[in-house]
Amino acid sequence: MIRDITIGQYYNGESLIHRLDARSKLFITLVYAITLFFCNDLYMLIFATIFLAIYIGLSKVPLSYMVRGLKVVWIFIAFTALFSLFNGSGEVLLTIWKLHITTGSLYTTIRVTVRLIYLILGSAVMTYTTMPMSLAAGLESALGFLKVFRIPVAELAMILTIALRFIPVFMEELDKIMKAQLSRGADFESGNIFKRIKSYIPVLIPLFVSAIRRATDLAEAMDARCFYGGEGRSRMNPLRYERADYFAYAIMIIYAGVIVLYRFWN
Amino acid sequence: MALIDIKRLSHKFNIKDSDGNIIGEHFAVRDADITAQKGSIIAIMGRNGSGKSTLARHMNGLLSAHEGSVIIAGKDAADKEKLLEIRKTVGMVFQNPDNQIVGNSVAEDVGFGLENIGMETETIWKEIHTALELTGMSAYIDRNTSRLSGGQKQRLAIASVMAMKPECIVFDEATSMLDPAAASDILKLVIRLNREQHITVILITHKMKEALYADCIYVMSEGSVKLQGKPQMLLMEKAEELRNCGIEIPFIYKLENELTVLYEAVMRDKIGKTDKTDRIDKTDRTDKTDKALKPIQTDKAEIKDTDEGCLITDIDRASDRLANSIKACIGAGKLPEQKRKAVIDDRKSGRYSNVEKTDSEILIQAENISYTYHRGDTPVYAVKNVSFSIRRGEIVAIAGHTGSGKSTLLQMMNGLIRPASGKLTVSGIDVVNTKNLKALRRKIGFVFQYPEYQLFEDTVLKDVMYGPKNFGMDREQAELSAIDALRLTGIDEKYFEASPFELSGGQRKRVALAGIFAYKPEILILDEPVAGLDSEGKEMLFQCINDFKNRENATVIWVSHDMNDVYEVADRLIVMREGSISFDGGLAPAFANESFVKENKLELPEMYVFKEKMKPELTICSNKYQAVVEEIKSYFQ
After folding, report:
1. Residues B440 and B558 reside in one and the same domain
2. What share of chain A is helix, strand, coil (3-state, %, to 5)?
3. How many angstroms separate the CA of residue B112 from the nearest CA in chain A?
4. Beta-sheet strand order (sheet of B378-391)
5. Could you tell me if B32 and B181 lie in one domain?
6. Pairing of strands B75-76, B67-72
7. Which of A181, A242, B224, B567 could make a disulfide contact with B605, Cβ separation 3.0–4.6 Å?
8. Dihedrals φ, ψ of B71, to 5°?
């Protein structure tokens, strides 16, 4: 059900990865994501798999929990896979109507799908192991240079934190509104696409109204607790690099180096 | 010097027409004077929309006054420089538990305010621990805030405010979205903070039960302070005025006021002082007021946590007093024997008791139904082998805590969730196998909690027509049933074309109810329908539901945590616990079993407690307030 969505949620645990500084995890995620696009043969994919397996293992987040998080995006993955399946050159393996599946397209599909799943899992480790506030603080610090361009980085980081905080609230609310409208005879499943989209209006309007109401309430509550924007705020969890963080940076640089070098040798 | 000193405060909103032009102004607060001494408890009461929340927002500078002055701890709230100081001095706990939590974890949320005032990291953590300890939340420090219960969320909100070291906390209907057990827990905490930490408390509430703890109650109506005084004095001497301001009088005081005249007359006849009625009346009253005022003073010192999760309040004492007075009249043997006999005969005829329905057809039949979900890899029973049957025209209350399987059970009735095993028949439809869920849902009106939040159309009428149209009525038919349903719920015709979002909370709730009534379901399922309503709104809603039930001979299944309401409305009670039914039967046997009441954390209905106190001299059969009054009166006539 809707409540199964675990992506972006913090998984309460104790592990090496949990203890890493948010900036290090941002760096790991970024490097891993970029290098994934260099991985275009089997050996490199195996290398990326081993890395991911160790990374997830160290985070101590159960694999089943992570896979459950994929449920929400599987449709997106399936769509991407389907698209590349009929789009490629090489020997024709199967023809459905006017579409051909070829050796090339099959290979691309596998590669694309694996990469996509790894990309999601790789970044999910970060969100599972980092408290949203630390994550926001990490982003704020990593993107701090944007302040020069008058971009309110601190406020954006606060918005991100609050958005993550309210995901479960809205999920629950969505579930409830849908059930209430179903009880009033709503039908979300039959009819053509336009009819179906229209059938969601009785769900979306109350959800928006509720979002506005909650936002107003929250703004008031934040005001009452002396929130005046980014200026003059202190941090309960200041960002601090430990030894493990330096190791993490070193490992990532070596990992990226190996992949890039391998790619250029072939 | 008073901590809070508000003088002739007015706050107004502009009234705009549909184009946004200002066409007038509306005073939310007008000429209000309020003072709160340091360390006191002040209650501000009034119906929804009386201006009490607007007033509260002036106390920590969330709103600024249009006229008058607001002085907090010697600082003028109009001075923008002092705003931060004032917000640190006066903390606020709001109504909706979800909408005031900023942090993703408990610690983060408590730390939020401290970060805002630029406290150093180490001190922040020290304060977090202290505040959590103070509010009994230490064990949850790392918990994700979305996994807390409503009561825990409010506790956290209090912790977050306490961490800022305030002198005063304003509670803006902080318990109105909680079940009674959680609400009384929160109230206990508030009282403790007042006693032990000397926090000045401002309680914005419409529950008299909470306001009884106040040193002074201010009653607001239409923006002005209409009444002011000690709780006991107001209840004893200004009951009528309180009612006019929309305040619900605890039933025992209501009963006392109604019966006093009666039993005093009997006593007078007995003693033979018929000619001095006036004087007796007065001395008797002042005497009572004095007695009532004293105990509440001692009360303040001796409030302790009780295992039952109930507060020892003056209500209990008032109940004793009334029971004893009535007993004195009747027990003295002054009642003619034939009168007593007549009453007993009358009772046997079933005039006063709630007759259990055994003759009408069975509408809902559940046999061993179960439902499981997976937590990780282990299956968990939400509902386990539950069997029951409900007949046409019954009013069944369902109680049980969050996670007891109660909502799963209800959602099975209209096929939102299908039973994994067992047999469930509703109005002749096999819920487990039916392909036509719409036909099933048409027979059941499912009113979710806060149904007013599910309105979406641009006019009231269209919104009410949504259900009937979904269930296959044509436009004309749907409009006719919508109008009929709106009339039944007492919505004035002038609102039919208005947007549902322009209405008051109580009206919106009734519109939502009309949206269900419009397709004339045979079974009405109501999930905490009166949550958040003031006493007038509640009465009106009960009336609507009753009218519909009587007209359509509908079955009502009604989820409530409030045993006082259950006692007043229902004929039968089902209690869910850990996925099973732990009780199913009449109300009297349910509350008579003390250990059962304790185990299921039910609060005894005040009426039941009173009736028990009348025993053995007088056994009252009725449950409903009006019927009890009549039954007691019949002894005196």
Report:
1. yes
2. 70, 5, 25
3. 8
4. B378-391, B362-375, B421-426, B429-430
5. yes
6. antiparallel
7. B567
8. -115, 120
Phi, psi of A97 (to 5 degrees): 55, -115
pLDDT digits 0-9 by tens, A67-120? 877 777 888 888 888 888 887 777 777 777 777 778 888 888 888 889 999 998
Q: Which residues of B290-328 are buried (b: 16+ CB within 10 A; e: fewer)?
A: eebeeebeebeeebeeeeebebebbbbbbbebbbebbbe
A235 to B115: CB separation less than 8 angstroms, yes or no: yes
Sign for the pseudo-dihedral over CA of B338, B339, B342, B344: negative
Cα–Cα distance list, A113 to A47, A85, A116, A141, A235 (Å): 16, 10, 5, 33, 40
pLDDT tens profile B323-370: 887 777 765 555 555 666 666 665 555 444 455 556 788 999 999 999
Residue after which a domain boundary falls, among B244, B269, B298: B244
* CA–CA separation, B34 and B443 (whole Å): 52
Reduced to 3 states, what is the DSSP secondary structure of residue B21? coil
Chain A environment of B453 (Cβ under 8 Å): 177, 206, 209-210
Q: In what order do the strands lie in the sheet with B523-527?
A: B444-447, B523-527, B555-559, B395-399, B572-577, B580-585
- Quickly count helices (H) and strands (E) in chain A: 11, 2
pTM for this predicted structure: 0.83
- CA–CA distance, A126 with A132 (Å, rounded to integer): 10
Q: What is the ipTM of this complex?
A: 0.85
- B110 & B13 share domain: yes
Q: Is B401 in the same domain as B532? A: yes
Minimum Cα–Cα distance from A65: chain B residue: B376
The candidate with the shortest Cα–Cα distance to B505, out of B137, B63, B206, is B206
| Assigned token pair, A97 | 């109507």
Report the alpha-carbon distance of residue B544 to residue B547 in Å, rounded. 5
Nearest CB neighbour to A228, from listed B100, B116, B470: B116
User: What φ, ψ does residue B16 adopt, rounded to 5°?
Assistant: -115, 150
Residues B277 and B128 in one domain: no
Q: Which residues of A touch B114 (CB under 8 A)?
A: 234, 236
Say if the Cβ atoms of B102 and A218 lie within 8 Å: yes
Residue showing tokens 């961490």: B163
Would the pLDDT of B265 be above 80? no
Chain B residue numbers with beta carbons less than 8 Å from the beta carbon of A130 are none
| C-alpha to C-alpha distances, B616 to A46, B331, B611, B613, B635, nearest whole angstrom | 83, 10, 10, 8, 15
Best of A2, A167, A225 to disrupt the B interface by mutation (most B CBs within 10 Å)?
A225
Q: Do A180 and B448 touch (CB under 8 A)?
A: yes
Based on its alpha-carbon atoms, the radius of gyration of chain A, rounded to whole angstroms, reads 22
- Say yes or no: A3 contacts chain B, CB-CB below 8 A: no
Residue B336 amino acid letter: P
Range of the domain at B342: 251-354+627-636
